[in-house]
Amino acid sequence: MLFDQYQPEDFFDEMFASGSDVRPHYKAVGEALNDVSADEFRSRQTAVETAFMRGGVTFTVYSDSQGTERIFPFDCVPRVISAEEWDVVEKGLIQRLTALNLFLHDIYHEQKIIKDRVIPPQYLLSAKHFRREFMNFEVPKNVYVHICGSDLIRDRNGQYLVLEDNLRCPSGASYMLENRSALKRTFPELFQAAGVAPVDNYPTELLKVLQYCAPAKFRGTDAPNAVLLTPGVYNSAYFEHAFLARQMGIPIVEGRDLLVRDHKVFMRTTAGLVQVDVIYRRIDDDFLDPSVFRADSLLGVPGLVNAYRSGNVSLANSIGTGVADDKVVYYFVPKMIKYYLGEDPILPNVETYLASEPSDCSFILANLDKLVVKSANEAGGYGMLMGPWASKEEIESFRKMIEDNPRNFIAQNPISLSRHPTWCGDKFEGRHIDLRPYILCGEKTVVTPGGLTRVALRKGSLVVNSSQGGGSKDTWVLKD
Amino acid sequence: MSPPAREEYARHEQANVMLARVAGSLYWMSRYLERAENQARLIDVNLQLLLDFGDVSDELLKAHWLPMLRSSGDEEQFFKLYETADSESVTEFMTFRGENPNSLLSCISNARENARQVRDQISSEMWEVLNDAYLFIQGANSKQIWHEGASAFYDQIKRYSHLFQGITVSTFSRNEGFEFIQFGKYMERADQITRLLDIKYHILLPSASDVGGAVDTAQWHAVLRSASALEAYRRYYVADVFYKKVVEFLIFDGSFPRSLKFCCQEMDHLIELITDSSPEANKAPAVERFRLFLEKLSNLTVDDIFTQGLHEFLDSSQVEVGNIGGHLYNTYMYFPPVDLQAEIRFHQQQEQQQQ
Fold it and tell me: Domain Circularly permuted ATP-grasp type spans what residues (chain A) (predicted)?
């Protein structure tokens, strides 16, 4: 019924192989949803939104002077991934994060990958997030990136591609968990026949990772004291910080709650100062310690970096991981996989051009109206030029910026992202989606089966970011 | 360069640590919601009281509402926003105006904001009630609901507060955090009851001869209902509402959970729990002073109070309650912010010495 009018059109549709031909792993969901009337669907969709608002499952909109809280729009049609498909994705993500951790160790030590001329040195030494201060520093248990959120997309043929890696403070895991529990309440019947792998283990796994990475000097017999460091209640992701801290049962702290003495970190409690062993920080490097990095940061903790260097406290993620999610360094990840692991990448990159390579640069400048241009260090869909949809002025302003600072730009062919049936007021229509899975690296590397599927709710839009009209879906990985 | 003052290190094994900031937020969350409840009842009862008066002149309206503004210290702010004090303007001011730090909107927003700071510490159910209350009062149609039936509107606010307290009791672990929540609640309640009685004192001022008259009885009824105490009072005295008895009940009754004495006894018990009955804590001047006040509450009679002057007694009680609250807050819930610049210099210097 609801799908009778649905048109996959000329895109890779996650649910329909063609016309009305439902892919096998969507059969159960398709049948259950077809029994629902449009009115019924609408009222359940509204119920979910009310529940999110009541629960405060919201993010803060910066641009708005009132700091309005909004819900992250949620679409009730789940995105389904078959077990076989997921098997490849999971292997590919583990392979990628393993290589990235080896890369980070290498460039903060011997820099063999540079000496062997796999990556030209100028790219690394000029990377904005390269932290020279941490050369030859031993991070606890040799893990640099504990929490990784890599963005995956699927092209016209359904091939999964890595769009970017988020190795600093990837966010969104709380929405993965909240979306699941919301959909279970709203459409319990969808789950019955499907056999969906659970995601609720994520906080437990995250806590395990934090405890595993306790500093070398930690000698306690109890579990180490882990805390979550947040920029505070006005941060747009504060809901997530509070949510994860609550799920893990660890305190959420702000910079002002911590104090460094004798190279140790303490929190200020009702019973005096209590030592902290592991910090899951949701603050970028730059703001972490005003005595070392940005002195104007009011969010950080003076002395924290030194405590970290002294081996009295662990940070997740480590300092300086941003060098590996620089969009220029991204270009080299497939080469890293080959170099460190001797394997071919399971998940390919999107084909990318480097503005700093003269031949690529002239190609980019000649084709600005056909390419997607990104600045190397921006996230959240900012600092981007979508050539085919851009105005002449936007194109010219990017041309100038690229010519001035080629190191800061890359370009990619626009990918026709896969589409997914999505509720659009009174019926289902195809909307573009991506996928952000969460990979945790501690004693072993695990990928939570699922992740956050983001959907560009505006018709035709390819931008899935929540700040720019994106929503999300529950993401199912089917058990065998 | 010497480091900023050293605070005592607690042992690492200590489970269940609570950040001082968290304790402070729990305390304020609780205080603000209790304040909102008291405020809602006060407005509601006074709106209904006016119905008993029949025709009311502007002067009478002013005499009716002004003392309420005075008791919360909001008179000046009010006249910046309104020209006349009548039912509409005063209740709107006390309900919806963000410029009024004691309006229901401000109280509930502040309670919720404090809860948001400690979302990880309180149960989801507690958060949801506060968030519901907030969405209710700042929602687009809250003014319409208020216009259509003020009483139902204020009832709803009271229900949120009651719901919150019930949920807190049944979902919040009996740890330190619970003690701070309860302390905030009883402290606010003790403060509110003195203010409530003080409003009546203001009303009495112009015509002391009215005492015992019909209007006077209606006023004292209203006082009891504002403290949610009319039914309890009736059970206790099985008699007419007599002003001395009302004052006695609201100040000295040991079993009614909104009387000044009951609230102060609860606070005393919570102080013991929070300070772990440590000898040093008991010797703190503010604690000793509060114990003296409690003793006074046990020994005084209502006649003593009227001899001393009701207003003076209420005033000094407010000071006592505020004093012990301030002491607990400064000792357990608040750390003065570190001097960030001094900290930065200190650590940079330490760094250089190492190299």
Answer: 78-456
